[in-house]
């Protein structure tokens, strides 16, 4: 274990002991932080600089406003003076009078951490009451839709590559290995992005970092639609995935800090619906756009902008819309208070209060908060240092400081007092991701396998046929020609679709303008035959003998075939799977605060495991689609509860970091699930089903060891 982390852990335990002693002394002196009369919050006692409510606060505000009347324009007036906010200089002066014995600069590190821990606990309870005073209304619903678009962009990103693969593999001549890498690269990017952006959001701010991640995603997602080469396209999708990887951790941390305890579980669950909407949006757009070959253009012979590229741009629209709307939203006041930015936080909370009160028809209601507790800032010397020196030194200091803070935060979540909760959550996130993402890839692959088997069962076999001076100008499909003889035949402007010629002879034949998806010539003898403008490349001739044959102006590149299904099955299955989670979303939102997060996770994962066992009876396309919808609908409640409990288990300065770590582990489980489950398609159903069900059962049982959080305030 790292020495720096050991020192931090020792300081934490020493600070915790000091904080406990301080709290015990406070209890002995009979100091209560909160008083309630007739069910209403009275506020903090007036001498401790904490939250004040009731009529006394209003009188103080009026008195302070009156006192400022008549000031000359040249007088220095504090911005918040009219709102009754004490000037920071006055607060600092009082703090110096209370502790003249020693300066904060020389205070023992344990004392500083103890004071910060005590401040954070007081702030948590005070902030909860402030949010309750602000109410739940127009502001939260506006933020709900703005952040919902960002979450929708995350859902779109998961599906977009799968939808374009059937077309992109022909447009870019992708091999099987290239297709597999393209399918996994987005998850790799999202895994890295979750770690990076989650950690930065706890140091730089929720709004700022979310905007950066969305801008990165929107830029490279749009750029990927224009690039022609596979390598550059892969790179763009990787960076796009890194960008959107920050969406999930930051969105839930951001929104939760504007919600009261009674509203948090329900409304975070409603927010999860936007991930489902993203899947529906991607499926509908793919179904609408990709089959229309005419929705594109070409520039010469090398640049082609086909309809699937239009679809890629359309899929970036939710991200762009969220990015624009986010500009009009404020930073999280809870984060600002953690950073010691009291006045900014106060103004935002007042804005939230006034917005909600105006919407409720009570604009005259006054925001009664005069001062909010801010935790002791231990890293003040770093801020001073980072504002001096040359621009290069300032940038280097800020970068190294931020990196160290993010790294220490991550270590604290993994090896500090939260390590057991982090370990349990990591197992639960990994097991549900392994099962869910593995099965959502396995379902359409299995359905396609059933279709392929049915297609092959209808194959037409022709043996020992003899054709001479025949012109073929129509499509031959799903046929096998064995030991045939073709003399002076002409194949003109036609298509061979899944046709096999085996041990056949072609003598003085002519092929012109022929396309041949899925067509191969095996052990054939081809004599004095001309191939002009065809896609009959050498790899399609297996063990064949050529005698005096000519290939002229073969077709270049790969060619889209829009008479094929082009992934219609993928669109349909994904659309139905996304739509099927709607009932589960509604149920989880309504019951989240009633039955608790732990029971929701355990129950949902166990029910999903039972659904997996019924897949043994899925021997047809319709049955497989039905079981997929049932599985997705049952598992969504566990996903929602996991999002909620992950937000609630960690303090504000660790919340996005921990969520990012766990979401990164989730994406790692998705990568393994995609790779493992896809490898068993057409081989056996037993291993994927047993692996998915056992993972869900194990994760659900382990989740029961987590603490219930529905009654606690956000620390």
TrEMBL record:
Major subcellular location class: membrane
Keywords for the protein's UniProt record, in alphabetical order: Cytoplasmic vesicle, Glycoprotein, Membrane, Neurotransmitter transport, Phosphoprotein, Synapse, Transmembrane, Transmembrane helix, Transport
Record-annotated Major facilitator superfamily (MFS) profile domain positions: 143-710
InterPro entries the record matches: LD_SV2, MFS, MFS_dom, MFS_sugar_transport-like, MFS_trans_sf, Sugar_transporter_CS, SV2
GO biological process, one term: chemical synaptic transmission
Membrane topology according to the record: Multi-pass membrane protein
Transmembrane intervals: 143-168, 180-197, 209-226, 232-256, 268-290, 310-329, 423-443, 568-591, 598-618, 624-645, 657-680, 686-706
Keyword ATP-binding: no
Subcellular location: Cytoplasmic vesicle, Secretory vesicle, Synaptic vesicle membrane
Cross-referenced Pfam families: LD_SV2 (PF23894), MFS_1 (PF07690), Sugar_tr (PF00083)
A GO cellular component annotation in the UniProt record: synaptic vesicle membrane
Ranges for region Disordered: 1-108
GO function term, MF aspect, one: transmembrane transporter activity
Cited NCBIfam families: synapt_SV2
Protein name per the record: Synaptic vesicle glycoprotein 2B
Gene label: SV2B
């Amino acid at each position: 274990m790292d020495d720096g982390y050991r020192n931090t852990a020792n300081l934490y335990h020493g600070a915790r002991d000091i904080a406990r002693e301080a709290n015990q002394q406070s209890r002995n002196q009979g100091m209560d932080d909160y008083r309630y009369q007739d069910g209403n919050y009275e506020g903090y006692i007036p001498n401790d600089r904490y939250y004040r409510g009731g009529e006394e606060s209003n009188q103080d505000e009026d008195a302070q406003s009156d006192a400022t009347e008549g000031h000359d324009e040249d007088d220095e007036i504090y911005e918040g003076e009219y709102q009754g906010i004490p000037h920071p200089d006055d607060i600092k002066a009082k703090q110096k009078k209370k502790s003249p014995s020693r300066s904060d600069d020389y205070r023992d590190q344990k004392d500083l951490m103890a004071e910060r821990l005590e401040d954070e606990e007081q702030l948590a309870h005070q902030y909860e009451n402030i949010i309750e005073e602000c109410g739940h209304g127009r502001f939260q619903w506006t933020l709900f839709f703005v952040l919902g678009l960002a979450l929708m962009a995350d859902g779109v990103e998961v599906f977009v590559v799968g939808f374009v693969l059937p077309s992109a593999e022909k447009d870019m001549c992708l091999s099987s290995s290239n297709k597999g890498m393209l399918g996994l690269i987005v998850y790799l990017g999202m895994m890295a992005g979750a770690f990076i952006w989650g950690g930065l959001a706890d140091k730089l701010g929720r709004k700022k970092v979310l905007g950066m991640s969305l801008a990165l995603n929107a830029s490279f997602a749009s750029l990927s639609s224009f690039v022609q080469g596979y390598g550059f396209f892969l790179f763009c999708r990787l960076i796009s995935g890194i960008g959107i990887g920050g969406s999930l951790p930051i969105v839930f941390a951001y929104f939760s800090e504007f919600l009261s305890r009674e509203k948090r579980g329900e409304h975070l669950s409603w927010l999860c619906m936007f991930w489902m909407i993203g899947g529906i949006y991607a499926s509908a757009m793919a179904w609408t756009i990709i089959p229309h070959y005419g929705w594109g253009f070409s520039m010469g012979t090398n640049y082609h902008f086909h309809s699937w590229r239009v679809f890629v741009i359309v899929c970036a629209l939710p991200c762009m819309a969220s990015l624009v709307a986010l500009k009009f939203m404020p930073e999280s006041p809870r984060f600002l208070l953690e950073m010691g930015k009291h006045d900014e936080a106060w103004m935002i909370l007042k804005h939230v209060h006034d917005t909600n009160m105006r919407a409720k028809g009570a604009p005259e209601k006054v925001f009664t908060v005069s001062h909010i507790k801010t935790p002791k800032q231990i890293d003040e010397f770093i801020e001073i240092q980072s504002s001096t020196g040359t621009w290069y030194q300032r940038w280097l200091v800020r970068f190294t400081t931020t990196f160290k803070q993010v790294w220490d935060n991550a270590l604290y979540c993994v090896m500090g007092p939260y390590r057991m909760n982090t370990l349990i959550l990591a197992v639960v996130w990994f097991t549900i991701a392994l099962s869910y993402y593995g099965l959502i890839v396995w379902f359409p692959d299995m359905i396609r396998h059933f279709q392929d088997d049915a297609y092959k069962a209808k194959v037409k076999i022709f043996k020992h046929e003899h054709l001479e001076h025949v012109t073929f100008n129509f499509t031959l499909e799903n046929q096998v020609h064995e030991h045939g003889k073709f003399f002076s035949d002409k194949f003109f402007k036609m298509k061979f679709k899944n046709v096999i010629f085996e041990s056949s002879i072609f003598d003085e034949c002519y092929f012109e303008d022929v396309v041949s998806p899925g067509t191969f010539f095996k052990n054939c003898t081809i004599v004095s035959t001309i191939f002009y403008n065809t896609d009959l490349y050498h790899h399609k001739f297996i063990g064949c003998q050529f005698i005096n044959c000519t290939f002229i102006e073969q077709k270049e590149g790969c060619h889209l075939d829009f008479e094929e299904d082009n992934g219609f099955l993928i669109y349909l299955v994904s659309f139905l799977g996304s739509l099927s989670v709607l009932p589960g979303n509604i149920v989880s939102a309504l019951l989240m605060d009633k039955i608790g997060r732990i029971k929701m996770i355990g129950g949902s994962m166990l029910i999903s495991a039972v659904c997996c066992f019924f897949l043994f009876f899925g021997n047809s396309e319709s049955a497989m689609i039905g079981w997929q919808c049932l599985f997705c609908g049952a598992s969504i409640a566990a996903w929602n509860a996991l999002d909620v409990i992950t937000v609630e288990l960690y303090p504000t300065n660790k919340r996005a970091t921990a969520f990012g770590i766990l979401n990164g582990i989730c994406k790692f489980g998705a990568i393994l699930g995609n790779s493992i489950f896809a490898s068993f398609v057409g081989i056996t159903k037993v291993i994927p089903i047993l692996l998915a069900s056992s993972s869900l059962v194990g994760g659900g049982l382990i989740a029961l060891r987590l603490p219930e959080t529905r009654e606690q305030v956000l620390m």
